[in-house]
Predict the 3D structure of the following.
Amino acid sequence: MGSETKASQNGPAVAAPQAPSGGAIECDWCLDFWYPAVRSNRVRTGKLQAAMLLGIPLAVGRDNQGRVFAVRDSCPHRGMPFTEGWYDGELIECSYHGWKFDGHTGRCREIPSLTADQDLDVEKIRAKSFPAEEHDGYVWVYMAHPGSREERRPAPQLPKFSNGYRSIQLEAHLPCSIDHGIIGLMDPAHGPFVHQSWWWRGRRSIHEKRKIFEPIPNGFRMKAHSPSANSAPYKLLSVYGKPITTTIEFELPNIRREEIRCGDYWFSSQTTVTPESPERCRIDFVAAWNLFRWVPFLTPVLRWFGNRFIGQDQRTMEKQAEGLKYDPSLMLIDDADRPAKWYFQLKKGYIESKRNGAPMPHPMDGPATLRWRS
Ligand code: FES
Ligand SMILES: [Fe+2]
C-alpha cells in the first residue's frame, strides 16, 4: 500500500454496502446521455433498422443525403412499429394505415384516409424523435429525460492521435444489468481465469500489481504506467524500442477508455456498456491504431482475437446470470473491487446531485494506490 496515497483506505475484505443485488435495476439514471444505438454499416439508405436503448424501441434510418435519424419505433396512431413499414429515404410510411412521417423531426406529413374537407392539421402529430449523430462506426442517440432541461453534452468520441489509422468494432450482448456489465468491464482480477490463453496470460502468470488511480470528472483514471510484461501483445510492442505506457479510465455512465502510447505509435480503445433494458446490456468495443500498419491482415487477426476475448467475457456473464437469478447477496473486496465500489459511489453521487442540484460528490479525494494480484 503506497503511503503517499491517503485515499486508498485499504481495509479487510468486507461485504460492500453498494454491492449490486442480482435483481433488475431501473435505467432511469441512465437518461440524459448518448449511447451507441447501432453500427453505422447496418443503417442503409432507404431502410429502417430496429434498435433498443433503455427499454425504448427505436427505428434508426439514413436519408437520401446520408444523414441519420432515430425515432421511437412506434407509430403515434395505433402503435405499429415503424420498422414494419417502409422508408424511401424521404418519409417513413406506417404499414397499418399509411401515415407518413419525417424521420428527423418526427412530424406527420400525410394521412391517406383524410378527405379533402377534413382539416386535421397533420403536422401537429409527431412521432417521438431523438437526437442522433454518427461517428466511430456507430449511430449515437441521445436519450433525454422527458422534460429534462439539462444541457446536452457532446457525444463521446474515440480519441485518435494521428490522421492515418485502422479501426475495428466488436460487440457482445450480455444478459445482465448495466451495473454487472460495468463492474465486469472494470474488474482487474478476472483476467487470469476468464481470459486464459497462450497469447494473453494464464493462472501461472499471476503476480502482484500496484497501480495509481486518480479522480477525473465523473470517473477515475489509472495513471499512465508501463503495461504488464506478462502478456504477448505488449511484448510485441517492444519492437518499436520506445517506452510503452498505458492509461485506462472510466467515466459515468458507462465508458472505459484505454490508450497505449509508444513514441508516435498509439492504440486507443473505447468500450461502452449500453443498457438495452433493465436485464440486458450490450458491450460495444471500438479501437483505432496506427501500430503495425505494415503487417498484412492485422485487422482481421485483431478482430479474431478481439472476438475471442470479448466472447470469454460474454460466456462468463451468461453463466453468472444463472447465479444472479436467485438474488444472492454479493460482496466487493479491497483492493481488486475498488473500481467497482467507485462506480457505485459515483453513480449514487450523480443520482443525488441530479435530485438536489448540489455539486456531484466524488468518492476519491486524491490519488489512490490499489494493489491486487492478477
Ligand atoms: S398505426 Fe400507423 S398509421 Fe395507423
Ligand atoms: Fe474481461
Summary: The mean pLDDT is 89. The chain is about 15% helix and 30% strand. Residues 33-143 form a domain with the Rieske Iron-sulfur Protein fold (CATH 2.102.10.10).
